[in-house]
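Pinned message: reference record for Calcyclin-binding protein
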Amino acid sequence: MATHSDLEELKSLRAAAQRSYTKNLLTSEIEKIEAEFHRRAAQPQDAPVAPRLVAAPSRTRTKIDLYGWGQSDRFLNLYISDKLRDLKGANLPAENVTSTFTARSCLLEIKDLNGRDYFFTLPNLCEEIVSEECNHKVKSDSVVLNLRKKKAKEWVCVTATEKALKEKKKQEEDEETEKSLKSDDPQAPLMGLMKKMYSEGDDDMKRTISKAWFESQQKKNDMGADAHMGMLG
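Predicted structure (tokens):
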């Protein structure tokens, strides 16, 4: 396909030609090239083809509910391992695991772990934390969220909902204990106290109280049986 440079060169050759035959040949070629230029100019220009956008495949987003926790004077530690057993071999980029904190909440997001996205969130912590001093640590099969406590004290639970339920339960137990103290039944105060101790005690305390309660009931039943036999005799 001839170009404008070719056309100009042919015109230069025609101007320099001495013989009529040569000039006629060059003129004929020049006219053919000019006609081709006019034809191409008259054709509509093809619209530019827009690049085809390929939508990224959507990934399933799964919520993680289970977690463990522990604490020190300064930090509350949340251990998230549910559904994360594949972390060890996934070799996720660091930017695929992110954490966000506010004064009363935390959010962990894990992206593209074997084609899935995961998230864990607690939106209502029972105490305040220092968000800018919180962080996360990725391990082979889990992620640990380290929450910096605003006040160095022991947390009785993790969420405000749990705290409210504990306080409600304690209030009900206190009311029951107070009611038993005012009862005419001489055993009522002792029973109320034992229930309170059982509710608030550790596992050893609960086993001790359960054993004492069982032995007391057995003794009461044995005494009742002896009295019944005495009446029959």
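Pinned by admin. Summary line: Residues 61 and 116 are 6 Å apart (CA to CA).
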